[in-house]
User: Which sequence fits this backbone?
């Protein structure tokens, strides 16, 4: 699943291939991708221009000239690409926005889990997980007092705590393994047992790691590539995720993979020992 750095990379690409384009027609091949009435969705957007594309957490927010916002969540495998109108589409292409400039924006999703929801601009925070989404992982938004208070309230393990978008927006399986490795915290450590120093370090690691991953255009794993032909390069900089059986880059101990909250989890049993 694309995490924040990958979705931000997609957003930046969409600013180049979709922003400023006026919609001439919309073809919808898999109606469930659209959570609104399909015909209402189509009629509301034909003739409108995409002003810009914003992002909140892992959600893309397409802003239209008629004060409508399309909330798009890629879920497991959703991706956007552009091409000249009438270019090839396959059975995984579910929505095509044709623009007046002769290009089209295609939405492709092999797993079909991605969704688009059209709302009045300003109402987007009532859509799906945006209702309860936590702060963006930036120094200004993701404050130490907030993070500390949330951790103190939780008896659960730290890994699922960080995967929960209410606590901080944008982390998924890859970056949680990375920030826990960076901060030397065991993925099964109960959230409310972290020391003040660990909390401060973990917060810093989250902010730094996601910003760096954005700089490298995200991580390319499995089928995820950012729509525009340039794959992210951050996978070469991962220390934990995908490195089970390899030596820990910090201490040389063999990294192990376990399941935590049903998710494959790689960590160093030496640097990330469970603390009493
Ligand atoms: Zn280690």
Assistant:
């Amino acid at each position: 699943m694309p995490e924040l750095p990958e979705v931000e990379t997609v957003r930046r690409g969409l600013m180049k291939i979709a922003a400023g384009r006026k919609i001439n027609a919309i073809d919808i091949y898999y109606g469930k991708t659209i959570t609104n009435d399909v015909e209402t969705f189509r009629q509301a957007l034909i003739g409108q221009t995409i002003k810009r594309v914003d992002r909140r957490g892992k959600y893309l927010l397409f802003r239209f000239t008629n004060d409508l916002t399309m909330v798009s969540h890629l879920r497991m495998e959703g991706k956007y690409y552009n091409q000249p109108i009438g270019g090839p589409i396959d059975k995984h292409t579910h929505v095509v926005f044709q623009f007046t400039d002769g290009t089209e924006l295609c939405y492709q999703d092999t797993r079909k889990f991605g969704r688009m929801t059209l709302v009045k601009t300003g109402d987007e925070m009532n859509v799906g997980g945006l209702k309860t989404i936590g702060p963006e992982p930036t120094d200004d938004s993701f404050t130490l007092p907030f993070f500390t208070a949330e951790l103190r309230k939780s008896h659960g393990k730290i890994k699922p705590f960080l995967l929960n978008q209410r606590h901080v927006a944008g982390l998924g399986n890859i970056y949680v393994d990375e920030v826990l490795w960076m901060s030397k915290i065991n993925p099964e450590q109960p959230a409310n047992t972290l020391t003040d120093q660990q909390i401060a370090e973990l917060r810093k690691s989250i902010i730094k790691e996601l910003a760096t991953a954005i700089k490298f255009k995200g991580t390319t794993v499995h089928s995820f590539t950012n729509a525009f032909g340039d794959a992210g390069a951050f996978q070469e900089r991962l220390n934990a995720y995908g490195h089970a059986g390899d030596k820990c880059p910090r201490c040389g101990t063999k990294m192990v993979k376990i399941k935590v909250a049903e998710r494959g989890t790689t960590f160093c049993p030496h640097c990330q020992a469970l603390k009493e």
Q: What stands out?
A: The chain is about 25% helix and 20% strand. The domain at 144-267 is CATH 1.10.8.50 (Helicase, Ruva Protein; domain 3). The mean pLDDT is 94.
